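### Sample
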Amino acid sequence: MVREPTLSRRTVLESLAAVGAIGSVGVASAAPSDGSDDQLRLFSEQAVGDARELVTQQNYAYVATTDGMAVVDWRNPRRPELVAKIEASPPHEIGGDDEGSVGGILDVKVDGDVAAMAHNGGTGITTVDVSDPANPQELAFYDDVDSTGVHNCFLYEGHAYLTVGDSRETPFDYTGVEIVDISDPSNPELAAIWRLRDELPGFAAAGVNPNHDIYVQDDLVYNAFWDAGVVVLDASDPSDPQLVSQFGEAPEADTPMGDDFPYERYLTNPGNAHYVQPSPDGDYTYVGDETFPNAFEEPENDTYGGVRIFDTRDWDDVEQVGFVSPPDADAFRTSHNFDVTANRLHTSWYDGGVQVHDVTDPSDPEKLASYRTDDTSFWAAVRERGFTLASDIGGGLVVLHDDRGRARSPGFDGDGPPEDPGIDVSTTGDGT
């Protein structure tokens, strides 16, 4: 039974991960989960209001802020500095549809001198000139073809890849990916559309398989299609993407949903491929599953989603070889956005914190370090310059290190720890 207030289908489809809509996002009082040696430490921090997705490009961090984008200069990792924050203009002011809305900016991506803000509740993406990161300038708005919003995007070699989920007219009829030529970011143009219905019609017709997130590497487009698992496309010719493989689908992913939307099936295990990223060499693909068992009184499956690891060296014989379980915490702790390096996996788990695993052997991930406090909830974790950076939802950017820093909660509301940090900071040492 779904708890009141009942979730509307539209709310589920358009803002499922606008976080916190279903799960708690922290409660007051902060303390590291324990004092063991495996704890990541808070090295530094920078407040960023309404923080959501986080990406880095060397010395700068780009943070989605629901109404736009923030840029943090962390050339000095001890003193990250908020150097820019822009609000996304209404689409009609920068070349978009007069009837378009700004929408919730939950995702931002960057490639070289160009960034893009994805309009989750709007109708496309805004391209941004970040040649001077401290002075970002909006360039243009691209209207997507038919979806109700673009939840996520990715920039790769002069093209933007947009997730398409629910259609404005026919639910899931257009679920897929749009590829946009942004070689001239001031004049984005549609290059191609790939739709699930054209190659995997049963999964499109099931009505529970939006394209939620996307990652591009070595001309391969990795799409997280919720219960339909991961769909990989070859975009060596961005104007003509070709199906390469599909894997990791849930058992009922191609079963029609019937007259009533299957909330519990949609929000709980199995399935729920939410985020995907390949290893740098492409041999393995990591798939994060986002589940919401806490939305139901007595769900049939009450497990939180973890990270599945697939051997993808042979696209005709993909198999799951490893799994990273959610943190052992009494909190909303499903998998969210993560980052994969040659031998490390840096993960975020909402209220479950941030973790780092050794994945030298992907079939046997080993947890190395973690960071969690009772008043933080993390959207994304990324690896850059020897640090783990994470976005605390609504709070800002934290810079974590496995040796240096303090075992404490960030103090985004002031110059020091929160008023009730739950630990004696004077006894923790700064580790430097």
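The domain at 9-427 is CATH 2.130.10.10 (Methylamine Dehydrogenase; Chain H). This sample (LVIVD repeat-containing protein) is used throughout the tutorial notebook.
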